[in-house]
């Protein structure tokens, strides 16, 4: 395997065997939720783009990401728009623009590709899919499924990186679950307590209400997700602080795997195609090094 560079050699690029990678997903977080939530830590690195998810629920969307396909942005920006330039991909076919990172034909997924290069690969996830589907854990040297517990997830992954990757690069993955139903985070006050029962029951009626015209937006559920997004900005900030202190150039990707319906067209939840399920935030930035060529804040 080899590292590829942009066409302009003077531009700052990924450093061979020196660049860390951090992929963070906020499960079920809608794009408009992210925009409304106070997210000062991530805002300091730029504005999240409106992207389109690769799947309608956790399993297919994360499978796509771990095989190299991030949510897609319809704007002429490298890394955000894979037809302009893809961040990473397995080299199983020709592409118009050389990806920033490529892996040889036959590589199982991008995690396995990084591991073969000597990276420490570590992941932690909230959602049960990561426990049930072995393909979502493939290639990781260490992986844990914690349930929805962002602080516990950070406490698991950060000391591991410190011990196992003190002298080598790492690929780290974190799947946070607070923005997934029931939209609760540690220490959350009892705001909108009726959301728990109403949201779970409403999802039972999704199919009969597909043609429902007289729907109402569930503001309370939405505001609970907004509160959880604000909470995850703090927890994600802890990851950023750790990687910044490591001192290595680090490419960071923060996104959602899919969105959520809050009553639109009578629909609640996800795992079906709807604009609000497919719209997700995507933010890509770099620590301890100049920005990647062509990216704007």
Outline, from the CA principal axes? globular
Give the overall pLDDT as a whole number.
90
- What proportion of the residues is helical, as a percent range? 25-40%
Named CATH topology: Alkaline Phosphatase, subunit A
The proportion of strand residues reads: 15-25%
Can you tell me the CATH class?
Alpha Beta
Return the structural class. alpha/beta
Topology (elements, then pairings):
Layout: E1 20-26, H1 31-36, H2 40-43, E2 49-52, H3 58-66, E3 88-90, E4 101-103, H4 110-116, E5 120-125, H5 129-132, E6 142-145, H6 150-164, E7 170-176, H7 195-202, H8 219-246, E8 250-255, E9 261-262, E10 268-269, H9 275-278, E11 279-287
Parallel strand pairs: 1-7, 1-8, 3-4, 5-6, 5-7
Antiparallel strand pairs: 2-11, 8-11, 9-10
Helix pairs in contact: 6-8
What does this structure look like?
The protein has about 300 residues and is an alpha/beta fold. It has a single domain, classed as Alkaline Phosphatase, subunit A (3-Layer(aba) Sandwich), CATH 3.40.720. It contains nine helices and eleven strands. It has helices at about 30-35, 40-45, 60-65, 110-115, 130, 150-165, 195-200, 220-245, 275-280; strands at about 20-25, 50, 90, 100-105, 120-125, 140-145, 170-175, 250-255, 260, 270, 280-285. The strands form three sheets. Strands 2-11-8-1-7-5-6 form a seven-stranded mixed beta sheet, sandwiched between helices. The chain has a two-stranded parallel sheet with strand order 3-4. Strands 9-10 form a two-stranded antiparallel sheet. A hairpin with a 5-residue loop joins strand 9 (about 260) and strand 10 (about 270). Mean pLDDT is about 90; it is low at about 1-15.
């Amino acid at each position: 395997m080899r590292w590829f560079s942009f066409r302009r050699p003077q531009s700052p690029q990924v450093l061979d065997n020196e660049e860390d990678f951090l992929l963070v997903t906020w499960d079920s977080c809608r794009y408009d939720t992210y925009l409304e939530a106070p997210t000062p830590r991530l805002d300091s690195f730029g504005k999240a783009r409106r992207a389109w998810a690769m799947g309608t629920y956790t399993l297919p969307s994360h499978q796509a990401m771990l095989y190299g396909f991030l949510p897609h942005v319809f704007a002429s920006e490298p890394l955000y728009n894979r037809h302009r330039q893809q961040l990473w991909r397995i080299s199983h076919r020709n592409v118009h623009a050389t990806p920033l990172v490529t892996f040889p034909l036959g590589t199982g997924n991008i995690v396995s590709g990084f591991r073969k290069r000597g990276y420490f690969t570590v992941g932690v996830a909230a959602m049960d899919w990561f426990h049930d589907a072995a393909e979502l854990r493939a290639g990781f040297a260490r992986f844990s499924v914690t349930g929805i517990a962002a602080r516990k997830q950070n406490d698991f992954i950060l000391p591991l990186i410190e011990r196992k990757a003190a002298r080598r690069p790492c690929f780290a993955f974190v799947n946070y679950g607070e923005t997934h139903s029931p939209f609760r985070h540690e220490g959350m006050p009892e705001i909108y307590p009726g959301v728990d029962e109403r949201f779970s029951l409403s999802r039972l009626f999704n199919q009969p209400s597909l043609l429902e015209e007289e729907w109402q937006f569930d503001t309370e559920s939405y505001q609970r997700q907004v509160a959880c997004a604000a909470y995850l900005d703090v927890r994600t900030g802890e990851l950023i602080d750790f990687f910044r202190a490591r001192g290595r150039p680090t490419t960071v990707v923060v996104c959602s795997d899919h969105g959520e319906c809050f009553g639109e067209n009578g629909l609640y939840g996800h795992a079906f195609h709807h604009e609000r399920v497919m719209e997700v935030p995507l933010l890509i930035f770099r620590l301890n090094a100049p920005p990647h060529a062509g990216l704007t804040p």
